Amino acid sequence: MDKVTEKSGMAYWKKIVILLCAGWITIWIYRSALAPVYPQIRSSLGGGVSDTALGSISSFYFLGYVIMQIPAGFLVDKIGKKRVLIPGFILFAIAALIVAMASSIQMIYVGSVLAGLGCGSFYGSAYSLTSQNIPADKKSFSTAIVNSGSAVGSGLGMILSSFLVAQQGMPWQTMMYITIVMIICMVIAFQAIIKSNKDDIVNIQAAEEAAKAAAAAEPKVKEKVSLSTLFQPKMLFAYILYFATCYAYYMIVTWLPNFLATERGFHGAAIGFSSSLVAFASIPGALFFSKLADKYLNKKIQFIVVLELLSAAMLLLTVQAKTSAFLLTALILYGFLGKLAVEPIIISWLGENAPAVGVGTTLGVFNFFGMMSSIIAPALTGSISDATGSKVLGFYIAIILLAVGTILFLLANLHKKQANA
Question: What is the reported pTM?
Fold first, then answer.
């Protein structure tokens, strides 16, 4: 009997899965709620706000998020998950309030950076909790459930924002207040459910002692992580491929609602519903292709290449679609085949190819490349829209990056196979 099973009969690790899924839902409702209401934000600020300025709202958020990743991970190891998560989400709530009360685009930027810093506390804490508490035979599927919170939150954020603001005429700040309530609920849940920081410290000390004992018992073969191993061609091109994958995804998350409204004639709740198709289609895609890749372990490279090229093709079809039905079909397929479907396979491949003692460092560099695209894509696409009057070129840049990144990744791995032959 699991000693952490509560009176309700639910094991602790199951509560963690539900809690973390809810955490991602809350974060992604905030992330996706502003994009569908850019016109309303522009109007509330007196007009004259460019698309570049609006796209920079997302870029500033991700700037804060990227900055917080390494410090948050360090703090999780030193002081425990609750002591990182709860202050982080309190900052997140304050930031959302700042955004809601902002009277200038600059104040929205300040709130966005602070929101990114607050949300940056979640990633390291969440995956430390899953790593330490979920049984090994349930870890993959449970992690997929946790990750699905990002897709659910993204879809709900777009739908609610479009329906309540664009269709019902509520102030755009309504979504911020909804988010604040959800954040407060999450803080209460973190306090009630996550085990005490004393348990964290005991676990950390035990892990350190076990590591020291293992190091003393094993032959001291040191494999140092160097720049040459971190940036050997196959690894470098994996980073580039992930940058391209995330670039396309965050460009879509930020600008698809506005693109549908201004360039494809969608109105009201239809904007949010159509945009949310990408998020909701990604859930079965991630579960299906992860299981398939686990079944055919030696086919990871093929899965990655095919999925990336197909997702690029779906973006191309989205831009060139002449009818709404064709466009929506392309979006659904992009969601099914895109970032959330291919990401677990890339991470699995990376873990197999990283230096034995450098998996954490390699994943850190990998995630840095991916999240850098989330800073660049929103602002750059906004600049393109200001310069050309359309976001179509932004889509084409994403498509080209996906194609080039995939080809470089494939060539690097073909070269490796030839060298081993």
Answer: 0.74
Find tokens 């902002």 and name the residue.
Answer: 102
* Residue 46: φ, ψ to 5°: 90, 15
Domains and CATH numbers, the chain: 1-215 (1.20.1250.20), 221-421 (1.20.1250.20)
Cα-atom radius of gyration of the chain, to the nearest Å? 22
Specify whether the backbone of 321 is left (phi greater than 0), alpha (psi in -120 to 50) or beta.
beta
Residue 206 tokens, joined: 């035990």
Give the Å distances, CA to CA, from 247 to 112, 181, 237, 377, 405. Answer: 19, 30, 15, 6, 11
Place of tokens 């720049």: 227
Tokens of 115: 């929101």
DSSP state of 195: P
Alpha carbons 286 and 148: distance in angstroms, whole number: 9
Q: Beta-carbon neighbour count of residue 408 at 10 Å?
A: 18
From the list 153, 87, 84, the residue with the least C-alpha distance to 125 is 84
Closest CA to 236 of 227, 246, 245, 249: 227
Q: What is the pLDDT along the chain (421 residues), one digit of tens a residue?
A: 444 444 556 889 999 999 999 999 999 999 989 988 888 999 999 878 888 899 899 889 989 998 887 788 778 778 888 998 999 999 999 999 999 999 999 999 999 999 999 998 887 788 678 778 888 667 667 777 888 898 899 889 988 998 898 888 899 999 999 999 999 999 999 999 998 755 555 554 554 454 455 445 544 444 555 677 778 888 899 999 999 999 999 899 888 888 998 898 888 778 878 878 888 898 888 888 877 877 777 888 999 999 999 999 999 999 999 899 999 999 999 999 988 888 878 877 876 777 665 555 676 677 778 888 988 998 899 999 999 999 999 999 999 999 999 999 999 988 655 555 5
- Going by C-alpha positions, the residue among 327, 5, 20, 312 that lies closest to residue 144 is 20
Which one, of 297, 368, 309, lies nearest residue 338 by Cα?
309
From the centroid of its chain, how far is CA 329? 23
- 3-state DSSP assignment of residue 265: coil
What is the Cα–Cα distance from 124 to 131, expressed in whole angstroms?
Answer: 10
| Host H or E run for residue 263 | helix 233-263
The H-assigned helical ranges of 80-170 are: 81-101, 105-133, 139-161
